[in-house]
Automatic annotation (TrEMBL):
Cross-referenced InterPro entries: FAD-dep_OxRdtase_2_FAD-bd, FAD-oxidoreductase_2, FAD/NAD-bd_sf, Succ_DH/fumarate_Rdtase_cat_sf
SUPFAM superfamilies: FAD/NAD(P)-binding domain (SSF51905), Succinate dehydrogenase/fumarate reductase flavoprotein, catalytic domain (SSF56425)
Annotated GO MF terms: steroid dehydrogenase activity, acting on the CH-CH group of donors
Organism (species): Sphaerimonospora thailandensis
Residue ranges of domain FAD-dependent oxidoreductase 2 FAD-binding in the record: 20-471
Record's protein name: FAD-dependent oxidoreductase 2 FAD-binding domain-containing protein
UniProt keyword Ribonucleoprotein present: no
A GO biological process held by the record: steroid metabolic process
Cofactor(s) listed in the protein's UniProt record: FAD
Keywords assigned: FAD, Flavoprotein, Oxidoreductase
Pfam families (alphabetical): FAD_binding_2
Length: 490
């Protein structure tokens, strides 16, 4: 097994490289940290174990959760305030969202949006007003559950999913701009270089890193601070088994290198971790189909309003309901889904009656029928008293009916998108315990001198929930703060 034990500075005869701030990992958090530290005048070196920067950030959808009154929100006709954003996120990322981090994140969100624009990212001032995991258009704004019950009752709804101007997945575009900005600010990067151990001096201060590069050991001295931005640990089966078993057996939302290196190196010198069991998990079920029909468990029962942010119906199903889960829709609802929102999904079973369909699905006789009859009775009056799906989606379901199996993925036969055949995939949200400035704390709540973390290597704004865009969002926001704090660290 690879050792993550610290190396005593006194045993390093001479360091191969020196800098002020050493950033470990060149994803979104690392790029934001490197940019700010270099802009503040620090000599910055970024280590990246892959052949180039990007990480999971570059593969991502590029949705950024921003609000409080951004230019895009205003142009699309929405008034928003940091308070409404805070109230929504506290509820949706809860229970137990980190309120101190969340407050700063919401209060600083408009400035953070402008920071992205200043780095060269463009956001179209147009809105994609349909339920989707990922709009196929270049629209700059989308809903991420803010207008769904119960969230619409606690905060004034405003869409906050900000998207760079590219179709579908835009993470590459964000990373393209942030990496260029960090390099232009003066940050240097050593690729194919995997940090393995922290170097600690006699006073307990982190002063560098030992890394492996092309089979050789290379040592790095950081005069002001080391910032760990190595991502989460979904690719480490042992860590998952220990801390986040909810993700075992599901697909991995990652670049394959999220194996917890930074968390393990820091834990080896006494760093505390937080919320290691908290995960984002997504089921391959189509929001556009579910809002027009329903999501049911193995007993044919609904359990949530289907118009919530899709990650929330995924968690509600996978963590709290007996599976398998089924998307149920009638012919009229299926035909109503715009082709661009259908993602190649076709019915797994079709039937003229609910009795036939529930038999195909292996449900107890009458189970699904009871659910649909009750749903229809209320839908006729434009109501959903059990789960409060928005009235615009309510309509009695009529034969013929279809059931779709989320385990099959989005495109026909696409097992990979279905997350290893389980129908779900995810990533980890827990990580190192940090202050709002990225300082890593030990188990006594004391700062570990010289050590910082941000992104998914750290625990961010999340409690037990996740909303798209909050990972790139808090990774860059707190990455920036860590970069500034490390640059100023004497
Ligand atoms: C397909 C997909 C879609 C997603 N969509 C969204 C979205 O739309 N919005 C959103 O907010 N989030 C999204 N996410 C999640 C989000 O991309 C990640 O949570 C986020 O990018 C994590 O950022 P990071 O900087 O912490 O880590 P990363 O971007 O993973 O960067 C970590 C970097 O550290 C490097 N590294 C690791 N260990 C070492 C080591 N020992 N030494 C040197 N380098 C090391 C890695 O190679 C990597 O480059 C998505 C993820 C995926 C995969």
């Amino acid at each position: 097994m690879r050792s993550v034990e610290p190396v005593a500075a006194s045993t390093v005869a001479a360091f191969d490289h020196e800098c002020d701030v050493l950033v470990v990992g060149f994803g979104c958090a690392g790029a934001a940290a490197a940019f700010e530290a270099a802009s503040a005048g620090a000599r910055v070196l970024v280590l990246e174990r892959a052949g180039g920067p990007g990480g999971s950030s570059a593969m991502s959808g590029g949705e950024l959760y921003l609000g409080g009154g951004t230019a895009v929100q205003k142009a699309c006709g929405f008034d928003d305030t940091p308070d409404d954003m805070f109230t929504y996120l506290k509820a949706a990322l809860g229970p137990h969202a980190d309120e101190e981090k969340l407050r700063l994140y919401c209060d600083g969100s408009v400035e953070h949006f402008e920071w992205f624009r200043d780095r060269g990212l463009t956001f179209n001032e147009s809105m994609y007003d349909a339920p989707s995991w990922m709009p196929p258009t270049q629209d700059g704004l989308m809903w991420l559950g803010e207008n769904a019950w119960p969230y619409d009752t606690v905060a004034r709804p405003a869409p906050r999913g900000h998207r760079p101007a590219t179709e579908s997945f835009g993470g590459w575009m964000i990373m393209d701009k942030l990496v260029a900005a960090a390099k232009a600010a003066g940050a240097a990067c050593h690729t194919d270089t995997r940090a393995a151990n922290l170097v600690v001096d006699d006073a307990g201060r982190v002063v560098g890193v030992v890394a492996r590069q092309y089979g050789e050991t290379v040592t790095y001295r950081a005069h002001r601070g080391v910032i760990l931005t190595t991502g989460g640990f979904v690719d480490n089966e042992e860590m998952l088994a220990q801390h986040a078993p909810a993700l075992l057996g599901h697909g991995k939302v990652s670049d394959g290198l999220d194996d917890g290196d930074g968390i393990q190196m820091a834990a080896a010198i006494g760093a505390a971790t937080r919320r290691m069991a908290v995960v984002q998990i997504a089921m391959s079920a189509l929001p556009a189909m579910l809002v027009r029909g329903m999501l049911v468990n193995a007993l044919g029962q609904r359990f949530i309003n289907e118009d919530v942010y899709p990650g929330l119906f995924s968690v509600a199903a996978l963590q709290h309901q007996p599976g398998p889960y089924w998307a149920i829709v009638d012919e009229e609802g299926y035909e109503d889904i715009p082709a661009r929102d259908l993602w190649g999904v076709r019915p797994t079973f079709v039937a003229e009656t609910l009795a036939e369909l529930e038999q195909e699905l292996g449900m107890p006789a009458g189970a699904l029928e009871t659910t649909v009859v009750t749903y229809n009775r209320h839908a006729e009056r434009g109501e959903d008293p059990y789960f409060h799906k928005a009235a615009k989606w309510l309509r009695p379901l009529r034969a013929p009916f279809a059931a779709v199996d989320p385990r099959l993925g989005f495109n026909p036969g696409d097992r990979e998108s279905a997350g290893a055949g389980s129908g779900a995939s995810g990533f980890t949200l827990g990580g190192l315990h940090t202050t709002v400035d990225g300082v890593v704390l030990n188990n006594s709540g004391q700062p570990i001198p010289g050590l910082y973390a941000a992104g998914r290597a750290a625990s961010g704004i999340h409690g037990e929930g996740y909303i798209s865009g909050t990972s790139l969002g808090d990774g860059t926001f707190f990455g920036r703060r860590a970069g500034l704090a490390a640059a100023a660290d004497a």
